[in-house]
Design a protein that fits this description.
Elements: H1 13-16, E1 21-23, H2 33-42, E2 48-54, H3 55-58, E3 75-76, E4 81-90, H4 95-106, H5 113-124, H6 129-147, H7 151-158, H8 163-174, E5 178-182, H9 195-212
Parallel strand pairs: 2-5
Antiparallel strand pairs: 1-4, 2-4, 3-4
Helix pairs in contact: 5-6, 6-7, 6-8
Length: 226
Amino acid sequence: MGPPPTSDNIYAPVIVNRPQVLFVPADIPLVTGKEIDLFIQKADRVDYCLGVASEDYLKRFYPRGGEPGIKMSYLYLRDQAYRINNLHIARLSSDSALGLIQKMYNHRHQKSFWNRICMIWKLMVTDWGFPVLSIYLLAQIAVLAERFKLYPVQALFRKSLLLADVEAEISRWLNIRFKVVEVNAGGAALDIDDEKTYKTILQVFPKWRKMLAPVDPSPCPLAPTG
């Protein structure tokens, strides 16, 4: 187990010279050019930037007034609830870090009990995984408290989940510099992972695209078909 990352050993000099790479998946039809531009502008020159959108911003996509919509699941931290927006910028410092991130992505659907067990196991058997495990368990309890509307309980468990602490512990765990980048624009957080979501976006796509047009005068022209 190596030392935790510091400003001196966060990555080797050869890694600093590697270009950062933008990753955009193919299942986010409501992503906008402005959203991607903002994400790139706000991203630091670090190993891995993870894009998120706030719950307050994403409420505009909820079902309301008998119209279809999508209500997302969130990561509940002390000051805000976030949804991963599927945008990534990476300059990874090691193949092992890449493998760990891939495993996290494979188990990203945390509504699945099996994925939760797999995530806990991965954190238990990796170096520096226990501090991240404690964060993960607190966040999962906050999700359950939200589901059962136990808001005082949720507030109690969210209290110690500071974004800066989460970034620091994940950086130490992966031995890279990790940063969360909040971008409240576009619809990159609305990924199509199942048939129900696909059918919903198919119904509301023209309306939501029009709603996002003032934010992005040149939106992606590709609409879902079916």
